Amino acid sequence: MTMNIDIRSLHTKISQLKAMVAKAPVHPEAPEEIKHILKAAPLMLQNIEDALRVKGNNPKEFKLLKDMLDQAETFIDWAVGTVTGITTLETIKSGKGTDPSLATDQRLLNRIIKFMTTKIDGPTYLTLVREFAGEDAVQGETVYMDPGEEVEAFSQWMIHDINLPGESQCLIELFAKSESGNLPADELDLLVARLADRPSIYKVVKKEKDQSRGLYLVQDLLAPDFVLRIRDKATSQTLVVGSIFMARAIPIDAKDHLYSLMGKIASYPEKLWAILAAAIDGWSREYFEKNQKNTAQDFFRTHHARLRQEIRNIVEQHS
User: Fold this and answer.
1) DSSP H or E segment with residue 248
2) SS in 3 state form for 254-292?
3) Which of 38, 120, 236, 255 is the most buried (most CB within 10 A)?
4) Rounded distance, CA 135 to CA 128, Å?
5) What is the rounded distance in angstroms from the CA atom of residue 126 to the CA atom of residue 143?
6) How far apart are CA 233 and CA 79, in angstroms?
């Protein structure tokens, strides 16, 4: 029965990947390797699906096919993410990104990205990618980052955490100063909330028995006296008490002291945190000796890229 369930889950994943590829036509401005992946993906997925029907009940063959599908998913995610980014940027530059029919968060993000294009040119962008994701993340003019969690984290880092070259404020602060007077009320409210973000490393300390409301409590591991109340239905289903993750908490209800989470949340094993905590302890002592009036959030913003690099190093060493 378990094998049949596993086979069904792979067929479901194949169907999802086929749909992703179908919605991401090959873009003429995409790098050649991206074009190749998108052109080859339909036949590759069909071959895996056909082999699964014939050989899926053999445990060794099933494992081989699952590994092949996992690798295919990684490449397809990257390719689809790349062409989606190109298309989104073209839409924003054309002025269509502020379509009032879009959701509030998408309209605001598109405005911020359009504003970003006036502040960051191509070479600067690639320099920032290297700083955040390492030298290997850029080959020529092609960026190699996980299109899910890593790209999302990079975008947040550029918008919220760093002062761009030649600027004295981060991008979202520059955007607020320049554009607040031009925003509709719903986007302005969301912008104010995002300016009050709390980026950190969090640990789930309590969950409600009834998860229909998606409420749980997290402890800020960089400022352990702070416990935040989170309302987030998606992560309430995947995180458990003890889960440790890096995230950006955004206030959504000042009266009830409620927060939501931005981005894709990846839970870290406790062993990883035990190793990472030792490095953080040394960095934070050095940081706060020089910046005694700063907060844990200031420390996070300064060390965000360094934290992620350390996590990658730990995972590579212990994989």
Assistant:
1) strand 244-253
2) CCCCEEEEECCCCEECHHHHHHHHHHHHHHHHHHHHHCC
3) 38
4) 10
5) 8
6) 29
